[in-house]
């Protein structure tokens, strides 16, 4: 029973905390999650050469990748050379237009900065992200894994800026060229988009790979140990009462 209470309580816990660190800043964020009713193994990223040749973007899939949960809220702190800035939420998704020929998830969205689109989908994967991009085409991307996918999540900051965090997936060493930060393993990326005076966003510092991001280990073992200590104390007390009555 103690094992069930210890591990079950954490399994239902919310929010989920992520600690992250890049060359230009670091911080933490607590995510609020909700089930994604559209998550399905029916989602399979595909690529159509004929559509790409005709510059046609297929409609987004009616599904999100299997195992996905929606990130519905966020709070935390981002620290950089400019000081500490609070993370106050997420940028909501809106249907985006996929690159020509590519079938992408239902939650796929764009944030535009300096006229350039940056992808996100605000999805979280407790058991690791699957392949979400077509592994074929002119720029195939075959890596996957991590608690975010390669599109990632956009966080709203209280100064009007936006912080994008994503997973590059499980990659070999020097996957993105010699000198790229990060070693073999699951690596992440981080980008800052600053609020422009006339509206919209400007591109700020960015690190494509080598960002560390982790979900802290659950405290279930500590809870289990505390429960065992409580059980031990209860048994000692019961034995003492029985000994007193038998005297």
From TrEMBL:
NCBIfam families: PEP_CTERM
UniProt xrefs under Pfam families: PEP-CTERM
Name of the molecule in the record: Ice-binding protein C-terminal domain-containing protein
Ice-binding protein C-terminal domain mapped to chain residues: 214-236
Organism from which the protein derives: Rhodanobacter caeni
Taxonomic superkingdom: Bacteria
């Amino acid at each position: 029973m103690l094992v069930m209470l210890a591990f079950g309580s954490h399994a239902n816990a919310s929010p989920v905390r992520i600690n992250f660190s890049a060359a230009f800043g670091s911080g933490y964020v607590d995510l609020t999650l909700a089930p994604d009713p559209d998550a399905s193994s029916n989602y399979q990223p595909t690529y159509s050469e004929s559509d790409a040749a005709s510059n046609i973007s297929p409609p987004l899939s009616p599904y999100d990748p299997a195992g996905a949960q929606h990130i519905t809220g966020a709070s935390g702190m981002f620290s950089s050379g400019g000081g500490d800035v609070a993370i106050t939420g997420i940028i909501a998704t809106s249907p985006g237009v996929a690159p020509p020929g590519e079938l992408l998830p239902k939650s796929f969205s764009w944030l535009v900065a300096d006229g350039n689109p940056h992808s996100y989908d605000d999805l979280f994967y407790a058991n690791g992200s699957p392949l979400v991009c077509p592994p074929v085409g002119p720029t195939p991307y075959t890596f996957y894994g991590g608690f975010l996918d390669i599109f990632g999540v956009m966080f709203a900051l209280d100064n009007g800026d936006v912080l994008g965090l994503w997973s590059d997936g499980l990659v070999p060493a020097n996957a993105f060229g010699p000198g790229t930060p990060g070693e073999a393993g699951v690596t992440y990326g981080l980008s800052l988009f600053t609020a422009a005076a006339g509206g919209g966003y400007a591109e700020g510092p960015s690190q494509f790979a080598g960002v560390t991001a982790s979900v802290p280990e659950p405290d279930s073992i500590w809870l289990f140990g505390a429960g065992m200590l409580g059980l031990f104390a209860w048994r000692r007390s019961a034995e003492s009462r029985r000994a007193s009555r038998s005297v």
